[in-house]
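Zinc-dependent alcohol dehydrogenase family protein, pasting as requested.
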Amino acid sequence: MRAIVFAGPGSWSLEEVPDPAPGPREVLVRVEAVGLCGTDVHVLDGEFAPTRYPIIPGHETSGVVEAVGDQVGDIAPGDRVSVDPTLTCGECRFCAVGRSNLCEEWDGSGVARTNGSTAELTVAPVRNVHRLPDEVDLPLAALIEPLSCAIHGYDLLPRRMGEHVLVYGAGTMGLMMAQLAPRAGAASVTVVDRNPTRLAAAREVGIERVLTSADDADQIGGWDVVIDCTGAVAAIEDGLRRVRRGGVFQQFGVAPADASARFSPFAIYNDEISVVGSMAVLHSYGRAVEMFAAGALRADRMVSHAFTLDDYGDALDTFRAGSGRKLQIRPQAKVSSVLL
Ligand SMILES: [Zn+2]
Ligand SMILES: [Zn+2]
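Structure tokens follow.
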């Protein structure tokens, strides 16, 4: 099969590699779409510590089952599926207490040790393969993996009705966190981004308060919930200052591992501010499939480009230029297309 291979930091190529074969409890999937994500670029740039090279990137996957192992009975060839990339040991102290996203042997296919799905075919354990309801658009279903991360983010926030939510960043994750806020009971949601193209995307998915700076919002006393989806230190420092007394700040965006941000310990103490991290997926994949099928996202306004495997370099260039919305690779496609 044809696959993108990251040989080492900064080095990638489109190669002919052997087809993967499913083990007894594994499923072989013909990849329809795979989202290109900031994590893929960190992996390519050698900035993601768990990565072992060479690796086929790609962890936001939808496709059609091609074959199944001889002990798989509940998924069959022809099923349309979404693939959870999370691989955990099931044995360490974190797995034992139900926090397997913090597993000591944590592996994400396409980002850590196991090959991912920027390829014609990919293989996954049957427990990671989720059948899609008929009404779900197959290529757009590659948004289910990031949606499952967003749902995990909300799982970690205190659940109170009628709160005001501020989201930094109108990329894919920011748009998802903002779209989920009303479903989590928010009285209002405000999205801040410096990039006007991204702010237009936020308006298109239905966010009413879309600003280039939180200074422009008339929000006396701050926000009950502030979520950083940028990983940018300036945004994080700004956001920490805008949490209302008794409120919560969530670090959702991926900052460089050596970055540090300044905050006021006095404000954390005196205003009883909670700071919560959220990493990847935990028990949220099946719910993401159901919420996606129920229309929780304006998915049709979120995917802007579909690239062929041959045009992977163009996809990387488009990503690094910060243009477009969610970019996808469609390994079965013959020509690349601009969707939005
Ligand atoms: Zn991702
Ligand atoms: Zn574990």
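Note for the archive: The chain has two domains: 2-148+281-338, 157-277.
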